[in-house]
Design brief:
Layout: E1 9-10, E2 13-14, H1 23-48, H2 53-70, H3 74-89
Antiparallel strand pairs: 1-2
Length: 96
């Protein structure tokens, strides 16, 4: 017989990973929201750049990597995104 994991929402509330809930969960939620907003802004910046299609594609791939990283390592994704935005601010483009 197949055992299914606990549903992500029990009694209308998200299940916490450690059973503790509270401040740690709200910090993670806030970090997810921050990373999501910064990813949205970074995608808009890439879209608005006056660079080749190849450069935009490479930059978009980097942002997709950040998105995938956020699914398993949120702090790591936030660091990657910060470096990405810093590179954009300083005019550094990915190698071709």
């Amino acid at each position: 017989m197949h055992h299914s994991p606990e549903p992500p929402y029990q009694d209308g509330e998200p299940a916490s990973g450690d059973g503790q809930g509270g401040a740690a969960d709200s910090e993670v939620t806030l970090l997810y929201a921050l990373v999501a907003e910064r990813l949205k802004q970074a995608h808009a910046r890439v879209h608005a750049l006056n660079v080749s299609t190849d450069a935009k594609t490479a930059l978009t791939r980097q942002l997709l990597i950040v998105t995938e990283t956020a699914k398993r390592d949120l702090p790591g994704a936030a660091r990657r995104l910060s470096r990405f935005v810093q590179d954009l601010d300083e005019g550094r483009m990915p190698p071709r």
